[in-house]
Amino acid sequence: MARNELRPVVKLRSMAGTGYTYVTRKNRRNDPDRMILRKYDPVARRHVDFREER
């Protein structure tokens, strides 16, 4: 069974420059632009913005 392309897998990379990433899914219909989420970066040991990579 094929995955639906309405909710693709996206990689979120830390904007702190540590190279740490999260992997999540997003709804393209609700969020057509790049996602920016504030999440915990264990390398920097603080909450930073994570931006969607393409």
From TrEMBL:
One GO molecular-function entry: structural constituent of ribosome
Keywords assigned: Ribonucleoprotein, Ribosomal protein
Keyword Ribonucleoprotein belongs to the record: yes
Annotated InterPro entries: Ribosomal_bL33, Ribosomal_bL33_CS, Ribosomal_bL33_sf, Ribosomal_zn-bd
Top-rank taxon: Bacteria
Pfam family for this entry, one: Ribosomal_L33
Gene Ontology, cellular component aspect: cytosolic large ribosomal subunit
Listed GO biological process terms: translation
NCBIfam families: PRK00595.1, rpmG_bact
Family, as annotated: Belongs to the bacterial ribosomal protein bL33 family.
Matching PANTHER family: 54S RIBOSOMAL PROTEIN L39, MITOCHONDRIAL (PTHR15238), LARGE RIBOSOMAL SUBUNIT PROTEIN BL33M (PTHR15238:SF1)
Name used for this protein in its record: Large ribosomal subunit protein bL33
Organism expressing this protein natively: Streptomyces aurantiacus
Record gene name: rpmG1
